[in-house]
Write a structure and sequence with these properties.
The complex is a heterodimer.
Chain A (H helix, E strand, L loop, with lengths): L20 H17 L9 E4 L3 E8 L8 E8 L5 H14 L3
Chain B lengths: L1 E5 L21 H10 L4 E7 L3 E6 L2 E6 L6 H7 L5 H14 L7 H7 L5 H20 L3 E7 L15 H19 L3 H6 L3 E2 L10 H9 L6 H8 L3 H13 L3 E2 L21 E2 L2 E2 L5 E3 L9 E3 L7
Antiparallel strand pairs in B: 1-5, 2-3, 2-5, 3-4, 6-7, 8-9, 10-11
Classes of the chains: A alpha+beta, B alpha+beta.
Chain lengths: ~100, ~300
Amino acid sequence: MDEVTGLAYRSAGDFSGVGRPHEIAELIALITEGLHGAGAPGELESVVVTGSRLHEVLHPVPSRAPMNTAVVVLALDRERSNLALAVREAADLAGSILI
Amino acid sequence: MSVPASASGVAAPAHATAPAPSPAPRNVPALLVKLLAEDFTGAVEVSGSPGGTIHLRLGLVIAVDTPNAPSVETLLIRSGRIDEAGWAAAVTQRATAGEAADVDLNAVLTGRGLIGHGELEAVCIAAVYDAAFAMALSPAEGWTVHEAAVPPELVTCPGESPRTLAEETTRRINALTQAWGAPLAELAAVRCRPAARIDPGALSTRRQAVLLAANGRRTPRDIAFFLGCGVFPAMQDIARLRARRLVEWEAPRTAALPITARVTTPAEVQVGGTHILPRRTRRDRHGENGAGSETTEGKDSS
């Protein structure tokens, strides 16, 4: 999905628990502005939300165009996933998804 | 064959031999839904200010062209994804290849390693939604349906559903109107500039770029073209920067002529909150027919 507009480009699997894309974009903007406002420089690398049923991993996709950032959103069944591995694989996926 | 119509839904058949028309669509989204049901392939030219062209393949929207939003080419080059030399070389190669079925600009760009399949697809999809949003900022005056229209070289495949496109456009307009707190025409016309010295560490790279582009002469559309991003994201950034009081602008100029004469009139003079009516004064003018004449300043309403 697009990090700024919240436009979902493509999806696969059961994404009913992910939430609406523009709300995810709002969440990312809120976190980014909050971090910068608190004096934390730099760009957001990832966001991990853990829930009782689902984990959600948000990972910005590296691009040559800083004005147009895509984000990979993964929703993981908590009972069937390893969060540490999922975060790592999300980074790998983000690095290859636009190629 | 072209079939013009008006935005009010009053059909204006182009040919007397046209088949009996079904109920005319009320607006462009309704027209697109109708064309989706017909698996229509062609283009819908929307007139307005500035209007645009919606390209369809089997009823799905594959591209939208409008002067109000950057094209895919602009998005690719101005954003820095593809340099101009690489783009020119790709266009030349595409032209040299002629009409070969398996050689389109999409394949050339990815084949030369200028951009990945996924990124090009994402840019094409984003361009469709952004152009639809930009067109929706001004009302459509009418439309003409072209069955034999040539689509642009770079399109999204298989295309976007007209219903999804209309819903997303409505959502964007509502969200931005709520964030801005006023009609979007005002936001679309605003020419803002940075309000004060900005601490770069307090802003993301994107916001820094928008602030640098906002020089007091560019509208959000101009900023989008300059930076190679969408019009909606640019307007969204301006709205958010305003909420943080990081941008400012002058009020739009009115059509009234500049005031160069004295503004205060005797009728505006107030003493103790009450109006004093202008007093008629006598002025003696010597040498005019040998008699004095009266001049009046202000207007006596008594």
